[in-house]
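pinned: reference chain
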Amino acid sequence: MADRPQAAPVPQAPQAPAVPAAVRPAGAAGSVTVREYGTRYLRISVRYHGDARFSWLRVPGPAHDRPQTAPSPAAGAALRRVDAAVADAASGAGAGAGSGAGRGARLALGERAAASESGERGGVVYRVPGAVSVARLLPSGDDTAYRLSVRALADLGRTLRQLHDVPWEFAEPVPPHHGVGRLLAWISGTAPDGDGARLRALAHDRLGARLWTRLTDWAVAAQEPPGRGGAVLLHGAPSTGWLVPSPAGDHSVLLTGEEVTGGDPALDLGWVLGELHELRSAAARGLGAAGQGPPVDYPAAAQALLAGYLREEDAAAAVETLPAGTARAATLRLAVHMRDFASFVGWHEDLRRYADLLAETLDADGAPTLRW
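pinned: its structure tokens
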């Protein structure tokens, strides 16, 4: 049985935090691009507009295989209601609530970018209070950046719980889960992949028939409508890369809209836990950037997420009260990221060891993703 994660208190942000250099733009006046990065799937440009105002523009890359669509009007209205509830809870917590009790990550809903911003490929723009996501801050080695990240993950946990309290009772059908869809296309060999096809052959060999079948069955089940309890409102792809803390430490925002769907809440929570499990495992095995960077307390980060997600009455029995299937969803997230890297970034020899990590996690029914 997996070790039971304990609901640890969230570290307090300092009253006047020293903002790490990675967060602070270079003091330029007016609107200026401060970061640009991405893959063949998506390109991201971060612009600074003065007065702690930033915009994140996400433009499809040449391998992007679908339009960037906004949530339906009904789902969009539900998202705005959740964001209003998050804002009310934060206001009710009061300035003296140093632990962040009652806070959540605000939802930054994307808008269709103007042609002057994104060019002919279109794009979605988000208005946020920071230039750098938790994906970069968490492993940076900067103590303040780490505290901002851990607190943002607790905020994320609270907001995901708010989303998952909303049943999918809209007139329109549930959109497909895009991450799981990409995984299924890769498993079936229908994606025009290049290096992704090379990884598929390697993973099939490393996993063997039994675990390859298990991966396939889990992915198929994840796309099926939930059973008892029905579908709930899902972010669809929550991650440290979508989570942006304010440099002042007063709130966080979660980029939301392009992947919104309905389904089992395990998919959202497992998506983040799977990412943290991958980072922890990569660091321990010396893989990728995580394996070359400074030591990071990933268990504390995961515990903060869980402490935010779990209700107070549930915290004493943490694993038992997580949505059923969370470990499987976390394992699927590991597989999706591995597939996306090969398909949209390219081949790296570390992928052989990532395939072994996926095999180990599948063989243990995903249990390592909950051992925090």
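why pinned: The first strand starts at residue 32 and ends at 38. Confidence is low (pLDDT under 50) at residues 1-24, 95-100.
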